[in-house]
Specification:
The chain is α+β, with helices and mostly antiparallel strands. The protein has four domains: 64 residues, 2-Layer Sandwich (Gyrase A, domain 2), CATH 3.30.1360; 123 residues, Cyclophilin (Beta Barrel), CATH 2.40.100; 157 residues, no CATH class; 120 residues, Cyclophilin-like (Cyclophilin). Helices cover 13% and strands 29% of the residues. It contains seven helices and 32 strands. It has a seven-stranded mixed β-sheet. Strand 9 and strand 10 form a beta hairpin. It is globular and about 75 Å long.
């Protein structure tokens, strides 16, 4: 089995293989042996993404993969699944034109062949299906849509798939389906599993299936009540690693370091859930006496209202310090003076349901708790013993208007000539207003890739700098899709993602090469940097 190892940041690498059978065999070997340091591995069309717990572990895993003896072929479940489709997609006419076919011929080509589910990824329940022939091979859109409606049926390269949820995406949309592609509460959450045979059936009308999300409890005796949320307030923890094969990204707090710090302030384990507030405006009222702490963006905190049964004046506690929020008092976060995300922790932690072992709200997959809204009550658990309210020193510095982020080139830097690498590194990229937890969209002088064709979809990581056909980079953040089909020119060092999480639109990023031994020759880093500044 031939294997080419390509760096994918400081915590991960891609293993490039000759065939889908080789991909399945290597993926099975890794998931069954579970070598030390492995966080997750994700099968794709011709690659396996391997993600490690640390840079050192990534090096060891690369050596392990290089020497792993794999020859068994894996039998997969080939049951047949029929998906009803109404063919009214907004790209159907464009696809017909690209292929030199009529609309009816495209529909016939899509419904007349069997599609084999090859691998999962991108988002929960999204499964890449390969057709029996090459008649519908079309490129992705030049620029991905910021939102593709749930149920959309798309084409890209050799693949067809159904979008289970509303997500960004660059596939050509030819129709829509109401099939329930994903249910996290089910024993088998995905409707389609790798190996299944999918047949698309044209229909005139769809049977819509409604779903409801579990609601938060009300009338609690100990916790916080949401008064206002500002632009966006979410429950977040350290994320849900290990589920990329189901199409679920790690998610978690955008600024993991500040979320951990907020928990330390109030004596919680660092992985407890906190409230992530975007650009201030969060206001909560204590139900019962609480100990809280705020970390992250530089905001003014105001505590108002006399506690029930007491007489305490309004006051303004500092960030990065624990303080009491007594029964009936309200806490409000002002607009950030620097940074953009604040983290509110409460001693004992929020006693809320988890999805796939995490209480994080994932905006791409829509897993986890819904965005917080006024009136929601969050129960708080009793503090674990022993735990100590603390005052950790040396809060991390918040970013200025221009931040320098370290990157490792690869895995697809060879899709770009050296002058395009220089263009990536020599200019300041501006964060646009369309940026969010899924990714930072950057504006600047566009990059141009070599005319190599379409990249088969492959695993991605937080920090990946993806270059769509239009040339404007998208820097993946915590809720990124787990697979993508545009080349990734480089990946930001994982330590720098916390800083980027605090940068508002209009801020600027400069990229600099990070020199570290490469997994391609038993280390991490894509090509030897010149004039390294790190």
């Amino acid at each position: 089995m031939n294997r080419t190892i390509r760096p994918c940041g400081d915590l991960a690498f891609l293993v490039e293989l000759d065939s889908l059978d080789d991909v399945v065999a290597l993926h099975h070997a890794l998931t069954s042996t579970k070598p030390a340091g492995l966080v997750e591995c994700l099968a794709a069309a011709s690659t396996v993404l391997v993600r490690a717990v640390s840079p050192v572990a990534a090096l060891e895993l690369a050596r392990y993969v290089r020497g792993l003896d794999v020859h068994d072929r894996i039998e997969r479940d080939s049951k047949e699944i029929v998906i009803d489709v109404r063919y009214d997609g907004e790209d159907l006419d464009d696809v017909a034109k690209l292929l030199g076919m009529s609309r009816e011929a495209v529909i016939e080509a899509h419904t007349s062949q069997a599609w084999t589910a090859a691998f999962g990824g991108f988002s929960p329940g999204f499964v890449y299906c390969i057709g029996e022939n090459d008649s519908l091979n079309v490129p992705r859109r030049d620029s991905p849509r910021t939102s593709v409606p749930a149920g959309s049926v798309g084409l890209a390269g050799h693949f067809s798939a159904v979008y289970p949820r509303s997500t960004p995406g660059g596939w050509q949309l030819i129709g829509r389906s109401s099939a329930p592609m994903w249910d996290a509460s089910a024993d088998q959450p995905a409707l389609v599993a790798p190996g299944n045979i999918v047949r698309y059936r044209a229909v005139n009308e769809l049977v819509e299936i409604s779903t409801t999300s579990p609601s938060m409890p009300t009338g609690i005796e100990h916790g916080l009540r949401i008064k206002s949320t500002g632009i966006q307030s979410l429950l977040q923890d350290q994320g849900r690693p290990g589920f990329a094969d189901l199409g679920v990204s790690e998610s978690g707090a955008m600024d993991l370091r500040s979320a951990r710090r907020a928990n330390l302030l109030v004596g919680n384990p660092v992985g407890y859930a906190v409230i992530e507030s975007l650009m201030g405006g969060l206001s909560v009222t204590a139900i019962g006496d609480q100990v809280v702490g705020v970390a992250g963006a530089d905001v003014d905190i105001t505590v108002t209202g006399a506690p029930l049964g007491g007489d305490v004046p309004d006051y303004t506690p500092p960030i990065n310090r624990p303080f009491a929020l007594l029964d009936g008092q309200s806490l409000t976060l002002g607009s950030p003076k620097r940074g953009m995300r604040s983290y509110l922790a409460v001693r004992g932690g929020f006693d809320v349901p988890t999805v796939l072992d995490s209480a994080s709200a994932d905006l791409l997959s829509q897993e986890g708790p819904a965005p917080l809204a006024p009136g929601v009550e969050l129960p708080v658990a009793s503090a674990a013993w022993p735990s100590f309210v603390s005052d950790p020193k040396h809060a991390p510095a918040l970013p200025r208007d221009v931040v320098s982020a370290s990157i490792i080139l690869g895995p697809r830097d060879d899709w770009f000539d050296s002058d395009q690498i220089d263009l990536l590194l020599s200019q300041e990229w501006t964060i646009t207003e369309t940026s969010n937890r899924i990714g930072l969209r950057l504006d600047g002088m566009p990059l141009k890739s070599r005319d190599i064709g379409e990249l088969p979809s492959e695993g991605t990581v937080a920090g990946a700098i993806q270059i769509p056909h239009e040339g404007k980079p998208v820097l993946f953040m915590r809720d990124h899709p787990v697979t993508g089909g545009y080349p990734v020119i480089g990946v930001v060092n994982h330590h720098d993602l916390d800083v980027l999480a605090q940068m508002p639109p209009g801020s600027k990023i400069r990229f600099r090469l990070y020199h570290q031994p490469s997994v391609a020759d038993d280390a991490i880093g894509a090509r030897a940097p010149e004039g390294n500044e790190s």
